[in-house]
Amino acid sequence: MQFLIIVYDEECFQGRHHEFTSECCNVMEFGFETVRSLRVESGAWVGYEHSNYQGHQFVLERGEYPQCDAFGGSNAYHIERMTSFRPISCSNHRECRMTIYERENYLGRKGELSDDYPSLQAMGWCNNEVGSMRVQSGAFVCYQFPGYRGYQYIMECDRHCGEYKNFKEFGSHCQTPQIQSIRRIQQ
Amino acid sequence: MQFLIIVYDEECFQGRHHEFTSECCNVMEFGFETVRSLRVESGAWVGYEHSNYQGHQFVLERGEYPQCDAFGGSNAYHIERMTSFRPISCSNHRECRMTIYERENYLGRKGELSDDYPSLQAMGWCNNEVGSMRVQSGAFVCYQFPGYRGYQYIMECDRHCGEYKNFKEFGSHCQTPQIQSIRRIQQ
């Protein structure tokens, strides 16, 4: 699997740019104040608000992102910066499988997921929250709101051993177990 | 197919509320200044910024939307209001099929879609634009950016005869043929 992302320090692919084929823990070390536009040429990546893969996270798939608004993690929280990013190495699994649980520590009702779900409630999930989850294979992105909107949490089988036993492990910024849509990351 | 949406004039499902089972061309006629939170109980709906189904549009699937940020159409253009909305009546097709064309008037390279595509370029589409499209069955939502982000355009087989021959027909607000992700609407 090849990974290539080109980041720019001005909007619309202007200004200083740099190509990356692997993770970058702090784009400022490359003379960037922040990233204002980017192109994903291959692979799926996850971007982070802060350095060292901290803060809000958002999936970056192949295509053009001419301004921060195009990749910023959430409408609810308007992200103006991307400081670190890394490839999603397990995103090229043929099969993506995860189990979601109603309560933390893998308790309560559970659901087996292997597809894309723009509304968990429409597929029969009991409420607007997920208490814990296990990723058996591949990678998924979970969203706060239906229709793949709001805060994002990237879940991978080869991080945390695919185990996310409560919402604090969903992401460093995660303040609520509210999750209403989930989809596979397949590039 | 049942359709039910409950809209509130305050955030977090507070204040005045009203239930709708069919289209609403102007929520102000029901005493609302605007809609600040909503619950979709069944069916898929499309919301519009302005009355009479004008302005920016956004798909609303089953679940909870506690503030405008949760349903507002785009990060790039932060929508603070929803004034009209309607059910997507053809969204319960078993099969969704559409054809996208590189240029307007159904010219140039074409692609047949029957699945969800978080990145058109990753599935081999030539560029970051779609010149025209035909929906043969069901309903799709097209997005400006990869990963189902940015401006939304809801495309239905039973509107415009499923024919969208140039980007001005994608939506009343559409100013560019830039489309980088497309998914089915299946509720």
Q: Could you characterize what this model shows?
A:
The structure is a homodimer of 187-residue chains. Chain A is mostly beta strands and 187 residues long. Chain A is built from one helix and 14 strands, in the order ββββββαββββββββ. At the A-B interface, strand 5, strand 6, helix 1 and strand 14 of A face strand 5, strand 6, helix 1, strand 11 and strand 14 of B.
Give a short summary of the structure.
2 copies of one chain form a homodimer. Chain A has 187 residues and is mainly beta.
Structural descriptors:
homodimer; mainly beta; four-stranded antiparallel sheet; 1 helix
Helical stretch tally of chain A: 1
Q: Fraction of residues of chain A in helices?
A: under 10%
Overall average residue pLDDT of chain A:
92
Q: How many individual β-strands of chain A? A: 14
Global structural class of chain A: mainly beta
Keywords (chains A, B): Eye lens protein, Repeat
Function (chains A, B): Crystallins are the dominant structural components of the vertebrate eye lens.
Protein name (chains A, B): Beta-crystallin A4
Pfam families (chains A, B): Crystall (PF00030)
Summarize the topology:
The structure is a homodimer.
Chain A: E1 4-10, E2 14-20, E3 37-42, E4 45-50, E5 54-60, E6 63-65, H1 68-71, E7 84-87, E8 97-103, E9 107-113, E10 132-137, E11 139-145, E12 149-156, E13 163-164, E14 181-185
Antiparallel strand pairs in A: 1-2, 1-3, 3-6, 4-5, 4-7, 8-9, 8-10, 10-13, 11-12, 11-14
